[in-house]
Design goal:
The protein is an alpha/beta fold and 381 residues long. Helices cover 40% and strands 14% of the residues. It is built from 13 helices and twelve strands. α4 links the parallel β3 and β4.
């Protein structure tokens, strides 16, 4: 089996799974309980939070646990809207956001908020000048995806941060779900990023767990109220086994991180060079983008057809975003924003690597891809 769908989800790492099992068996007390078992669970919860914070170079008080990227994006966007409504009701985002961000914006629009969607160029990147021109007196939030989940385009975060230092009252939210350990993401200290959202299953942790970074001093209204967990910001009994496992996974991400990024880049370059030789293949990912994603399509062949043709050869990729790929009537919003015609966007496929993928797997992919290209040519002849 060759698994090239790591932007959709990753296989949990062996040591992470072992941590999950051990904590499930040993630390089963509720952290809110007053007895000894509750104390043990509380200590592990605090230790896990501190380990993540130390790995990212931020404070433990700036880490809040969630169920994943969707909850994190919803919480930051709507929590900021609630908290800042008295100061203004204008938000700026991009036209290439994940549905968790886009749909949150649409909900706020129905409640009377005004949202500006910044356009992108043919590489899926915004112009910082457009962002500057969109800022108003009533702007309270800027929400920008770090790494696009469909084509891997990178937004100019450094330039955006420099601009927003002139607007200290505007909160800056970054969807970093596809970014951990894959690009430089300045957090803490003097960084202008106020909120960053992460999802465990994107970096070999269990599903259903994630966290947000919330810069000290930035207020965020809770969406989930009740028992007062997470400093009264996110109620609900903590999923301690998943939290501890995610803490382990975060540490693993940054072990030999530069070598991992170099390896991913080499895999991507190898596959891209091969695809560029194919007359009937269109590559949608820009050349200067995230190291683990490559989006392309076969002319005249719908993306899901290519997915299933490769699946028959025990190779697993996706169309674009796994969150919407089963909705066949939904086009890629990213490719549309990049100016790709609808009939061309329908051909899109996404290969996404992990550090465990090998050059031999890429070579096997190329061999099998040649076979399906020939099959499609025979069918269409």
């Amino acid at each position: 089996m060759i698994y090239f769908d790591n932007s959709a989800t990753t296989k949990i790492a062996d040591s992470v799974l072992e941590t999950y099992k051990k904590v499930s068996e040993t630390y089963f007390g509720n952290p809110s309980s007053l007895h000894h078992l509750g104390d043990l669970s509380t200590q592990l919860l605090q230790q896990s939070r501190l380990q993540i914070a130390n790995t990212l170079g931020v404070k433990a008080e700036e880490i809040y646990f969630t169920s994943g990227g969707t909850e994190g994006d919803n919480w930051v966007i709507k929590g900021t809207a609630i908290e800042k409504a008295r100061f203004g009701k204008h938000i700026i985002t991009t036209s290439v956001e994940h549905p968790a961000v886009y749909e949150s914006m649409k909900q706020l629009e129905m409640l009377g908020w005004e949202v500006t969607y910044l356009p992108v160029n043919q590489e899926g990147v915004i112009a910082v000048e457009d962002l500057k021109n969109a800022i108003r007196e009533d702007t309270v939030l800027v929400s920008i995806i770090a790494v696009n989940n469909e084509v891997g385009s990178l937004q100019p975060l450094e330039e955006i941060c420099a601009l927003l230092k002139n607007y200290p009252n505007i909160h800056f939210h970054v969807d970093a779900v596809q970014a951990l350990g894959l690009i430089d993401l300045p957090l803490g200290g003097n960084s202008r990023i106020d909120f960053a959202v992460f999802s465990g299953h994107k970096f070999k942790a269990p599903r259903g767990i994630g966290f947000i970074y919330a810069k000290e001093g930035r207020q965020l209204a809770p969406l989930l109220t009740g028992g007062g967990q997470e400093k009264n910001k996110r109620s609900g009994t903590e999923n301690l086994p998943a939290i501890a496992a995610m803490s382990r996974a975060v540490r693993l991400v940054f072990e030999e991180v530069d070598q991992k990024k170099s390896h991913l880049r080499n895999l991507q370059k190898k596959l891209r060079a091969y695809l560029e030789t194919k007359e009937k293949v269109t590559i949608f990912s820009p050349k200067d983008h995230a190291p683990h994603i490559l989006c392309f399509g076969i002319d005249g062949v719908r993306g899901e057809v290519t997915v299933h043709a490769l699946e028959e050869k025990d190779i697993y990729i996706s169309t674009t975003s796994a969150c919407s790929s089963r909705a066949l009537d939904v086009d890629s919003s990213t490719l549309h924003a990049m100016g790709v015609p609808k009939n061309v966007a329908e051909t899109a496929n996404r290969v996404s690597f992990s550090a465990e993928n090998t050059e031999e797997e890429v070579e096997k992919f190329m061999e099998k891809f040649d076979e399906i290209l020939h099959q499609f040519e025979v069918i269409n002849s």
